[in-house]
Amino acid sequence: MIHLETDSLRFEFQSKVAGILKSSIKALESPLSEVDAIEYKPSLFSTKLELRFKSLQHAQEFPEADANEVVSELKRRDRSDAKKFVRKVKLQLVSKDLDSMLEMTNETLGQ
């Protein structure tokens, strides 16, 4: 599960060992400022959610992370919600970027 907080993404997950045994529930939180990109990737046979961080540090705690990228395969029933979630995160990221630009502009203009 991924939750969008005001300034972060909060993840809750369980790892499967040998496809049967589940680990305890783990929770991680990553600041939105460390998210480089999030993508909803539909294909004919599966749909994936790809999350790329700006540094390796934030991805290393996830099982099956590849460098700075975490890829999760979605169940068919979760596709619609995932698509909406990705839009919300992207909107939040753009909003943070615009706020940062406005702040820099105000500082430059001495306001």
Describe this structure in words.
- Strands 1-2-5 form a three-stranded antiparallel beta sheet, with helices on one face. A three-stranded antiparallel beta sheet has the order 6-7-8. The chain has a two-stranded antiparallel ribbon with strand order 3-4.
- The mean pLDDT is 87.
- A hairpin with a 4-residue loop joins strand 6 and strand 7.
- It contains two helices and eight strands.
- It has 111 residues and is an alpha+beta fold.
- The protein has helices at residues 56-59, 79-109; strands at residues 2-4, 8-13, 16-17, 21-22, 26-31, 35-42, 47-53, 69-74.
- It has one domain (2-106): Roll (PH-domain like).
- The protein starts with a strand and ends with a helix.
